[in-house]
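User: Can you predict the 3D structure for this chain?
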Amino acid sequence: MFTPRPTSTQRSPRPIAQRLCLACLCLTILDARADTPATRPNAQTTATTPPAPEARPAPTPPVAPLYHRPVTSASAAPRAKSYQTPVTSAASPRTAKPTATTSANAARLCPDRPRTPPKGFIDLEALIDGLVLDIRYHRADNFTGAPIAGYGAPKAWLLEAPAQALKRVQDSLRKQGLGLIIYDAYRPRRGTDAMVAWAERTGQTALLDGGYIARRSRHNHGTTVDLGLVDLKSGRALDMGTDFDTLTPQSRTRAAKGKALQNRLLLKAEMEKEGFRAYFREWWHFQFTVPGSRPRDVPYGQCEIDEWAGYQN
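Assistant: Here is the predicted structure, written as C-alpha cells:
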C-alpha cells in the first residue's frame, strides 16, 4: 500500500544545535581549501623550494715548507746518510753560508781528517822540521770551552811567505836547542764568527772592545800565527808567564818577570828578525804583511762544509 511522503510542512523541524554543528563543519572545510599551496600567496617559493645550501670555500692546497726541495729525476736516487756527505772541492764552493753549529756538527762526523790546503797555503807541519802543534781550537780546552768551527782537523796553514819566514825562525832557534809550538795559524772566518758569537752570547763583549777577540782577524788571511817556545830535548813548552789565550793584561809582552820575560823577549826578537810584527797585548800573537791577501773560510776538516761563495768575493 502506497504511503504518501509528508510535505515540508508536515516534517519535524531539526534541532537548532544540529544545524549549528553542520554550519561549523562547512566553514572548516572551506577554510582548509583556501589554505592550499595553490591559493596561498608565495606558496611556491616559501613552501616547495628547499633552502639553498651554504657555500663552502674551495680547499686550499698544502704549502710546501721552506726547506722542501722537489724531487727531480736527477735527485731521485736514495740520499746518502749524513755521515756520508760528500766533500766538494774548494774550487766549487757551496752557496750556503756555514754557521758555527753546522760546521761543528759536520766536523764531529769524521774528526781529524784534514783536507789539503787551498792554493797558496802551506801545511806548516810538512814544511818545518821539529815543529810542535797544539791546536786547542780543535779541542774543547780553549777559552770558549768547546771546539771551534772550522777546526775539524788539528792542522796549521799559512800563506807561503809567512810560512817560509817561520821556517827560518825555527832554524835559528834550533841552534839554541829550542823550537816553536804552534797554537793557531790560518783561521777560517767561521772560526772568528764563532768566537765573536761566544763573546756576545756569554756577555763578555769586553773581550771584543779590549782587543782580545777581533771581529775581523788577520788570522783569516793566513798571515798571522799564535805560538810559543818549546825545548826540543824534553818537548816541553817554555815558561811564558801565562798560558796561551789568557785574555788578561798579564798577557802583554812586557807584563812578566824573570825567565818568563826573557822567553817572551827572545820569541819577539826571533820573530821580528824574519819580518813578523808582535802584538803588545798578546805575547803569542805575530803578524806578517802580505800585500793583496784576503780572508778565507776553507775549513781544516774534510767533513766540514766548504767555503761559502760569499767569502770569495
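The chain has one domain: 86-312. Confidence is low (pLDDT under 50) at residues 41-47, 59-96.
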